Amino acid sequence: MAAEQHDGPVQLSPTNWVAKQAELYESSGGTKGTTQLGVPCLLLDCVGRRSGAVRRTVLMYGRDGDDYLIVGSNGGSDSHPLWYLNLLSEHAVDIRVGTERFPALAETLTPEEKARVWPHLVEVFPRYAQYQQGTGRDIPVVRLRRR
């Protein structure tokens, strides 16, 4: 079930600062809270794989043509972020980029695609390179394509 088709309240991130930024971003209609550390951010609404609830988080993004790229860095942790695990179960999501909200499909990039876009993402947020070096897992990159 896509986030757009789900009834009920959206659940914000359990991380306090992320929840506050998501609330500001949404309540301002996408005019405030749109960056983190100078990097552009989007709101991702996805369906929880176990709860079925719509979950919202704020993520930095890069671009690849018309598509948005998000990185499952989880701050360099050895485990994937929960939002990424949710996307593996349900690819249909809703995103807000600035003042625009629209449905999208999420797709994890292949190793070849990731290699092509990774330099751009590291340019957008240099810590991604440190995060990848500091963990044994391959940090996934997800393409969000407008539906």
What would your notes on this structure say?
The chain has a single domain (3-146), classed as Electron Transport, Fmn-binding Protein, Chain A (Pnp Oxidase, Chain A), CATH 2.30.110.10. It is built from four helices and nine strands, in the order βαβββββαββααβ. The protein has helices at residues 16-27, 82-89, 111-124, 127-133, and strands at residues 11-12, 35-36, 39-47, 54-60, 62-64, 67-71, 92-97, 100-108, 141-146. A hairpin with a 2-residue loop joins strand 2 (35-36) and strand 3. It is globular, with a radius of gyration of 14 Å. The model has no long low-confidence stretch (mean pLDDT 94).
Structural class: alpha+beta
Find the CATH topology.
Pnp Oxidase, Chain A
Pick out the low-confidence regions.
none
Number of domains: 1
Question: What's the CATH first level?
Answer: Mainly Beta
Helix content: 25-40%
Largest sheet: 9 strands, mixed
Q: What's the number of extended β-strand segments?
A: 9
Strand content: 25-35%
Second rung of CATH, namely the architecture: Roll
- What would the principal axes of the Cα set say about the shape? globular
Any idea what the radius of gyration is? 14 Å
Summed up, the helix count is 4
The average pLDDT value, as a whole number, equals 94
Query: Which homologous superfamily in CATH is the superfamily?
Result: Electron Transport, Fmn-binding Protein, Chain A
Distance linking N and C termini: 14 Å
Order of helices and strands: EHEEEEEHEEHHE
